[in-house]
Amino acid sequence: MKAAPFEYSRVADVDEACAMLAADEHARVIAGGQTLVPLMAMRLTRPTRLIDINHIAALCYIRVENEAISIGATTQQCRVERDALIRTSLPLLARVVPFIGHAATRARGTVGGSLANADPAAELPLIAITLEATLCYRANGRTQDVLARDFFIGPMTTSLPNDAILIAVRFPVWKGNVGTGFHEINARRSDFAFVSAAAQVEMTDDGRCRRIAIGIGAATDFPIRLTAAERQLQDTVLEPAKVTSAVADVLADIKPLSDLHASAEYRRRAAVNLATRAVADARARALGENFRAH
Amino acid sequence: MHIRLSVNGTEHTLEIEPRTSLLDCLRDHLNLKGAHAGCEHGVCGACTVLLDGVAIRSCLMFAPQAEGMALTTIEGVTPGPGELSPVQDAFCETHGMQCGYCTPAMVLVAHALLADNPNPTREDIVEAISGNLCRCTGYAQIVDAIALAAERIRGANRPAGLRK
Amino acid sequence: MSAGPHRFVSADRRVREDRRFVAGKGRFVADIELPNTKHVALVTCPYPAARIKNIDARAALAMPGVRYVVDGPELAAATLPLMTGLDTPNVPRRPLALEVARYSGEWILAVVADSRAQAEDAAEFVEIVYEPLAFVLDAEQALQKDSPLVHEAHGSNVLLDKTFVWGEVERDFAASPHRLSLRVKWGRSSTVPIETFGVMANWDPWREILDVYASIQMPRFAEQIGNALKIPNTSVCVHYDIDVGGSYGVKRGIKHAVLCGYLARRLGVPVRLIEDRLENMRGGDAHGPERLFDVEVAFDNEGVVRSMKMRALENLGAYAGRSPFQLGKPVGAIVGPYRITSVQYRAIAVVSNKTTQDAVRGFGQGPTNFAIERCIDEVANFLRVDPLEVRRRNLIRREEFPYLIPSGTTYDSGDYQTVIDKVIADNGYERLKAERDRLRRAGKLAGIGIGACLEPSGGNTTFEPLLNPKITNSTSMDSCRINVDSTGAIVATMHTTSSGQGHETLVGTVVGEVLQVDPDEIRITRPDSLNSLPSGTPVASRMAIMLGGAAFHAAQKLKSKLTVIGAYDIGIPVDRAAYERGEVFDRLIPSNKRSWTELVTIAHRNYHRLPKGFEPGLAVEHIYQVPTGGTLPTSDGRVQMYPCFAFEFHLILLSIDPDLGRPEILRYQFGHDCGTQINPKIVRGMSMGGIAHGIGAALYEEFAYNDDGQLIAQSFMDYLLPTSHEVPPVEIVDHETPSPLTVFGQKGSGESGYLGAPAALANAINDAIRPLGISVNSLPIRISYLGDLIADARAKVAK
User: Fold this and answer.
1) How far apart are CA B103 and CA B96, in angstroms?
2) Which pLDDT score is estimated for C719?
3) CA C535, C537, C540 angle in degrees (round to 5)?
4) Under CATH, to which class is B2-76 assigned?
């Protein structure tokens, strides 16, 4: 499983990388390479040139930008995993990162790489969708923003133009009594999930849900927000039976994926179950209740 | 292309095709045979080496990507010809291997874990090796080895850093 | 048998091989470098069945670094087909497909280049025109009259269909108040070692020797290479000092070796093929049994099973080497640990357009144990009797050994009840049941699973004549040679490769025990095949018994020799001389002795001090035949199979998340009796590894195919091996019922855990879901399948 031959370039800035991409339609950028390299080893993709953007300092950061946290695209997942700012301001992201692959892949894999790869079962696209992240890319010397819901358009497919490079992702920060929950089901602990569910809630002091976001991953071609369920659950106390019912209603209309690992019906049922549990966890954490994960 | 790699504290200048994986580069160009190919698609972990002290999969990197970083292989944590590090000795004490194919990777993961966390729980150890497949041992004696190594290293009053 | 207490045997000693492995200094085949080596990559068939119409390799040959390509016709003209086990001359097996390709992934052409990468580059430019043919994947469909034929010349897809009747089966069924039938399926999984198969071959035309370095675990490897290449065995030199990165049966690699051997001779350079993982999974011919069992048992009101009818239908894949014999070996333990008095066994092996299988740990015993244990549980369920109690009523009792089973094998020894008693000591079983019931009351699905199984060990190739009367093998040997040189250094040899079983440690321990010398002072070497004595290789859980036995007897010969030399030199009759720790002394006057150094000096240098005509030097060897070996099957297929029978008892508490269908092992207890344990660290490792492997076979692993005949579990992304998270802590309880047949009472343990874990896990899951009125009898048991099954059952209950 040796990759097909290619040229290798290391660049110092993004625009240089974009120019190389524009010059050769079969060139690709590489950052961590944790998904690109095995694809190349299996010859499922054969770029003519790899443009290594992993050493562009300007792309590697975690910082506050207005009411959001901005993460540079080549920031490694393990860095996000340990970051104090992420832990306090983006608790859902902090909760989810340890589920991504293995420690050895998080040591090299990047936030931008996972988002651009857009695997239906990947955790970072799910959080991006759930929190309505904004993705920023650079092409032809200009920076563009695109909302997560417009970015992920198919399995392993994004709206990123061919000669564009993802440079950052911005996650809005929620204030108040915020709690998060995340569950996934897979065959083995660190496998790609069959289904995953992420939830973030902001609760009022008297236990009502002021704001809620629920996302489901791995069940469909790209992660989805359960906006209809969210509308139903807003301003309620998030009683479990109502949560289940709201989630089940929305999921009755989706066409889940079916493959070797899980049937469509399994994914649908599991999505309901995991979403209910994620919301319950988020609620309990937001209210600071004596908490045991559901 | 020419690349410069820093491996086990030594600088090497190599002429390789860019598509040469870091694993193949170490094995074929530097004659460091301790890292092994098990799957070449980043799942089994037998190719593990340390990059700036952190365990990574060398089959998931092309050699040019490693330029400018410090690599440590199993040969680099072995103290000398015929000598074993406390981690390696603990693996021998508990028989934390059988065929030996995944072993260098497991030893390196153990070194990296203990450098970061000198007092790991069994759950920490299980998590740390969960990215490395072993088909022989069922993992029990590997976990025992790492726990034993941690105990011995703590008892030896040595600095936590074990990397060369 | 040499009874304890022992100094070194059973002591908790380190495994000497470990030293090199922890330093990354093992010598695996991919580590071997020879100058000017060329590398092979394969071009494989994309269809499950296709006629090869045309091969055009011109573009490939023109590519950088490419030296040669070889196709099926060229190879077939120069070599003989590979050896097979059954008498099926119209089902030949070759390294490269000839005219017809019979599974997706089958090797069509080999490209040889200066580097593996260049070979892979060129492989993409080979143009092959195929005519897809009809194909069959399912074993039951392959049996149908209108099924596509995998091998037209054979006339059907059936390679074996043999029925044995041992005892009065019909009478026993008629006399029994109850009977039940069960269908169970063992899914297509295998051992999948982390190291793939690899081989390097190098032909020296001046010495006329083909050097072969391979990651091999295979009896008669050198012989099969020589046979296929049509060169005498004196020209084949297999190097046994290669470390094998795991095998557990599958590393047979004969097609790889013949291919490389041919190329090496043709090209005059070393030729190397290291399978990549894709080649290994799809075309390495290393799949395992995929077996459908229809079992019927006849039993009384107490749950005592009197008779059993078993039909085993095996899906071999497209070709067959020795793999069909995996239907024969279980005959030697066909009733498991139970007192079943008559058995009808029908073994059917069919070909299909799937990847060829090879030997998997247990050689068919794991699937058979799974079928038997599921039946026992269903008998218990039928009668509403506790499954442990039913087993107690059926188990062979300690005083009944040696025990002759209906199929002609005698079990050497056992004390199954005591092993179980030890595991459930302190009312453990009742407490476990109470815990299960508490979980159920809390709304969980919870179950207890039991597996009580035998591990036949020691090996004996009598399953060959059982299934192919043209074969008359009745022996399985191993050997050891010991030489003490003029300085007194002890070197002992073993004559096969190892893949982690610690055989060097085994030989050192045994020889050290007999000679009363520190094992660490004994050098163990592995000469190559030209310098070796016969060895059956590490199959059949045989090496502790066979290599241990050979080493023991060789060491005894050496001890005798030293005693004779010492007695003669002291001037006493031999029976007055005693040997202790390397010295020989006069029992009556102990101060009258000869030291090790003196004895060695006499043997090597002082011929005048040796008895007249005595062979000088201190070299001995022993070739050891398997105990109880030497008889062929009777006309009704009764045969003494393996000599020794280890026992294992699995007791699992498991819960299942009812919504997600995910099983979680809450407690795993394991009772194990393999007789005397020569090295406890090695035995524990075997058990834990086997249990992990069994967990994989039960819950995660499958070579799954889609309807288009494509293997969809082609990589480690989809073929799921257990990680450290999937293997729970296991409480191991040891017991030792020695074998009367072996030198230290040792039995084998190489298949420990694997042979019973899938049975126990399946039983636990079934116990958990039984209250819903459902069952699952097909491995692997996937989360999604379980989840859907449970959801459907609950929906029905709700209605």
Assistant:
1) 8
2) 97
3) 125
4) alpha beta
- The verdict on ipTM greater than 0.95 is yes
- DSSP class per residue in C205-269: TTTTEEEEEE----TTHHHHHHHHHT--GGGEEEETTPBPS--TT-TT-HHHHHHHHHHHHHHSS
**Overall fold of domain A7-52:** 3.30.43
Which residues does C contribute to its contact with A (CB < 8 Å)?
Answer: 116-117, 120-121, 124, 276-278, 659-662, 700, 704, 712-713, 715, 717-718, 720, 722-723, 725-726, 782-784, 787-788, 791
Residues 6+ apart with CB under 8 A from C5: none
The confidence score (pLDDT) of residue B157 equals 67
Upstream peptide bond of C658 is cis (omega within 30 degrees of 0): no
3-state SS class at C794: helix
Asked whether residue B164 carries a pLDDT value surpassing 50, the answer given is no
pLDDT at residue number B160: 58
The interface residues of chain B toward chain A in range 24-83, judged by CB-CB distance below 8 A, are 24, 40-42, 45, 48, 51, 54-57, 59-62, 64-65, 67-68
Q: Is residue B163 over pLDDT 60? A: no
Q: Does C501 touch chain B (CB under 8 A)?
A: yes
Identify all chain B residues contacting A107, using CB atoms and an 8 Å cutoff.
51, 54-56
A247: left (phi over 0), alpha (psi -120 to 50) or beta: alpha
The single residue listed with the structure tokens 């995993």 is A81
- pLDDT for the residue C580: 97
A189 interaction partners in chain C (CB closer than 8 Å): 723, 725-726
- pLDDT at residue B156 in the model: 82
pLDDT at A190: 81
Domain A57-172: CATH architecture, name and number where available:
2-Layer Sandwich (3.30)
Average pLDDT over residues C429-436: 98
DSSP C627: T
Query: What whole-number distance in Å separates Cα of residue C141 and Cα of residue C148?
Result: 9
Give pTM, 2 decimals. 0.97
Question: In CATH, which of 2.40.30.10, 1.10.150.120, 1.20.1250.20, 1.10.1040.10 is domain B86-155?
Answer: 1.10.150.120
Give start and end residues of each alpha helix (H) in C586-705: 596-605, 680-695
Number of domains in chain C: 3
Q: Which helix (H) or strand (E) holds C18?
A: helix C18-22
Which chain A residues touch C715 with a CB distance below 8 Å? 42
**CATH number of the domain where residue C611 is located:** 3.30.365.10
Q: Are C303 and C394 in contact (CB under 8 A)?
A: yes
Express each pLDDT in A264-290 by its tens digit: 999 999 999 999 999 999 999 999 875
Q: Tell me what the pLDDT averaged over chain C comes to.
A: 97
